[in-house]
Amino acid sequence: MQNYIFSNDFYKNIDLMVYTSGHEKCEPSHSYGPVVRTSYMFHYIHSGKGIYKCRDKTWHLKAGDMFLMIPQERIYYEADQDDPWEYSWIGLKGLKAEETIGRSTIFEDLVVHLPETSRIPAIFSRLQTGRMTDNSDLLYNSCAWDMVYQLSQEVPANKNTKDLSAADYVELILTYVGQHFEESISVQEIADHLSLDRSYVHRIFKKKMNMSVKEYILSLRLANACSYLIYTDLSTSDMARSVGYDNVLYFSKLFRKKKGLSPSNYREIRQKEYQHLQAPDSIQDPELSEAGSSKSQRTEKSAESSEATKQS
Q1: Are 266 and 229 within 8 A, CB to CB?
Q2: What is the pTM of this model?
Q3: Beta bridge partners of 58
Q4: What is d(CA 75, CA 207) in angstroms, rounded to the nearest whole number?
Q5: d(CA 191, CA 174)
């Protein structure tokens, strides 16, 4: 048996990391468990046979199969007496382990048969050949992410999009627009991305956001354009392209229509305001200012009360 325990500091790789990996050609009837694990453990069978028990089920496995152990679930596995298996394993843990592994059907089914073109066996080869090398921590972490990615592509989770609510879809629309507003996107493209009808996308977004998808894209582009104009030295043409407009003249007319100023005039005015706010004498904490004002008012009232007492 080859068992590799890595010096891979969890506190430096808290999202996802490899904490152990290995390879073993088992003896006949070699078994492990019953036991529970504290992290996620994958076993890939290269050859031979064996059984895996979990959740009151028994799977008879062979070459090409992979099985998963879930944290805190009781498991048992055993090599076949006549044709014992040879397998590789990898243990993963991290804050994003459950979510990323959950993108594959193996998270629910516990056992999958990988396609002949699977790239996952190559991940185990990299782990074995890459141990005790320079930058091995980078190798291990790349293998962790590659593992969950390949599983999500080769045996993806069976998600029923009909279970998503209108609010869920609006969130997906917002995310998509936020990632692509610099590009020439359309409502139809968003609908196609989500496998939805264009009119449905328009209707649910308008109801939730009180604006159309097109209006939201425009508002996001203009907000970013304003930020570029104030805080950068980008030319108007470069800035326009950066927010999704190749036609600079069209962008300038649109900007003037929405903001009441040309991009250059907007920059001149807003940059002066920004520079003024950065001046030490102009920076004032509103709460401190209000507190000072209140204190002054209390002092004045106290003085007035004292004077009135003396007069009486």
Answers
A1: yes
A2: 0.54
A3: 53
A4: 49
A5: 12
For the stretch 105-122, pLDDT in tens is 999 999 999 998 999 999
Q: State which amino acid sits at residue 14.
A: I
Q: Which two tokens stand for residue 291?
A: 């507190």
Query: What is the pLDDT, as a whole number, of residue 130?
Result: 65
* Cα dihedral: 276, 277, 283, 289 (round 10): 110
What distance in Å separates the CA atoms of residue 92 and residue 20, rounded to the nearest whole number?
8
Q: Residue 158 — φ and ψ, nearest 5°?
A: -85, 90
Q: How far is CA 165 from CA 161, 169, 204, 210, 214, in A?
A: 9, 6, 10, 18, 21
- Residue 203: the pLDDT is 94
In whole angstroms, what is the distance from residue 13 CA to residue 60 CA?
A: 35
14, 132, 87, 120 alpha-carbon torsion, rounded to 10°:
60
H or E element in which residue 143 lies? helix 136-154
Out of 44-48, 256-260, 287-291, which region has the weakest mean confidence (pLDDT)?
A: 287-291
Helix (H) or strand (E) holding 42: strand 40-47
Q: Which residues pair with residue 53 across a beta bridge?
A: 58, 76
